Amino acid sequence: MGKKKIEILVGFFVLLGMLGLLFLALQAANLGSIGGGDTYTVQARFDNIGGLKPRAPVRSAGVLVGRVTRIALDAKTYQGVVTMDIERAFQFPKDSAAKILTSGLLGDQYVGLEPGGDDANLAPGDTIAQTQSAVVLENLIGQFITGRADSAGAATGAASGAGQ
Amino acid sequence: MNAIARLGAIALEQFRGWGHAAFFFMEMLRAVPASLRRFGLVVAQVHAIGNRSLVIILASGLAVGFVLALQMYYALVIYGAAENLGLIVNLSLVRELGPVVAALLFAGRAGTSLTAEIGLMKAGEQLAAMELMAVDPKARVLAPRLIGGIISMPILAVLFSAIGILGAWVVAVLLIGVDAGNFWSIMQTGVDVWRDVGNGVIKAAVFGVICTVVALYQGHETEATPEGVAYATTRTVVISSLWVLGMDFILTALMFSRP
Q1: A90 near A36, Cβ under 8 Å?
Q2: Mutate to test the interface with A, among B39, B68, B85, B159 (most CBs of A within 10 A)
């Protein structure tokens, strides 16, 4: 009797542990969302992927439709090749555009898909032709500064030209 | 010259101790298959080690979840990011606090009782008596406790994290009023099952081995006096805590150093 009781108690203990693990996996982590579901793979080439990472979300109109699975560099064109899995329920036209966007001011980067108007849909393994690279803050600031310097240089150049 | 000799003696003594512990561990591993054949012994140990630690683990996990959520809220609300509360609490619990704090409590709750039990068995010469009767005390007494500890520790750590997250949910959603949908969905996008939860469980299993082996070794090597058992019990807590903290740093560096 005592032995049986102990076995029952240990059974409850192990069961509780499994329930805890299930809770952590399904409610507190991403096992329930996209992953292992029915997906198809497409690629997109970007001149600059910024801070995009594998497992980053792919969104269309802000809704999660897939995830980035692989990021590589094309050794010939020196472009970043982003491979992503998109849920099969969401079919996008062939001329859809992919952008690398940032969620919020300091948030993570994700791929935004904008559907085009083509009748044919993207097939598994296709490459998205229209892409827009990530906005790199340093380049933006650099452009701003050189833009200012150019206009300032033009102004002083004109002034010295007038002085002669 | 005397000082150098003493240094050498200390070093030799240390190495001897390490070698002794390693041999003890190997012999216990060799006894594991024999004790698995009598699984009832293991079940009884899971009950003694795991079930009886449940209350302290659940109470501490809940308290840690409460406090973590309250403190993080003060910092996060400055940046208007209170919704990220769940993610931060979850990651810190599942990756670090769950395994580590559960292991420290485990060393204090279960490790000490193992050391005292084995130490008194040794002091009462029960282990020697077993050997005389051709019963291997490693297979009959030590190995079931080792397996019991290895089974119990990950379960306790998982429950610690789970109840901590529930505690954070109570504070964040019910008391503070963070949106429940955001709380869970940000958590779900930020936490990976294999990388975060899986590695946390692996950590907990490693800590289970460390805590149980240290407790059994200290009990087995204790001096057969009341002071000896008291000293061995203290050393169990100190040594397993230091090992857990040091090992946690190494495991974290191995598991989570890549972004």
Answers
A1: no
A2: B159
Which of B167, B198, B197 lies closest to B183, judged by CA?
B167
CA angle A34/A35/A38 to nearest 5° reads 85
Note the ipTM here. Answer: 0.85
- Domain hosting A135: range is 39-142
Q: Nearest C-alpha of chain A: how many angstroms from B11?
A: 43
Please judge whether B188 and A29 are an interchain contact, meaning their C-beta atoms are less than 8 angstroms apart: yes
Q: Do A20 and B43 touch (CB under 8 A)?
A: no
**Which of B180, B25, B15, B169 minimizes the C-alpha distance to B89?**
B169
Q: Do A16 and B159 touch (CB under 8 A)?
A: yes
Q: Is the dihedral of CA A89, A93, A94, A98 positive or negative?
A: negative
- Is residue A159 included in any domain, yes or no? no
- Interface residue B193 vs chain A (CB under 8 A): yes
Write the pLDDT tens digit of every residue in A74-118.
Answer: 888 888 899 988 888 888 888 889 988 887 666 678 889 888 888
Residues A19-58 as b/e (b if ≥16 CB within 10 A, e otherwise) read ebbebbbebbbbbeebeeeebbebebbbeebeebeeebbb
- Is the residue at A60 inside a domain? yes
* Residue B188 backbone dihedrals phi, psi, to 5 degrees: -70, -35
Residue A161 lies in a domain: no
Task: Say whether A29 and B187 touch across the interface (CB within 8 A).
Answer: yes
Domain count, chain B: 1
Whether pTM > 0.80 for this model: the answer is no
**Which is nearest to B118 in space by CA: B210, B17, B45, B55?**
B45
> Tokens standing for B195?
């990388």
The strand pair at A39-46 and A130-132 is best described as unpaired
Q: Tens digit of pLDDT for each residue in B206-238?
A: 999 999 999 999 999 998 888 999 999 999 999
Number of structural domains found in chain A? 1
H-helix or E-strand spanning residue A73: strand A63-73
Amino acid found at B252: T
Question: Considering CB atoms only, which of B40, B163, B193 is closest to A29?
Answer: B193
Helix axes B98-106, B143-169, angle to 10 degrees: 130
- The residue segments making up the domain with residue B196 are 2-256
**Contact yes or no for B191 and A6 at CB 8 A:** no
Q: Which residues of A touch B159 (CB under 8 A)?
A: 16-17, 20
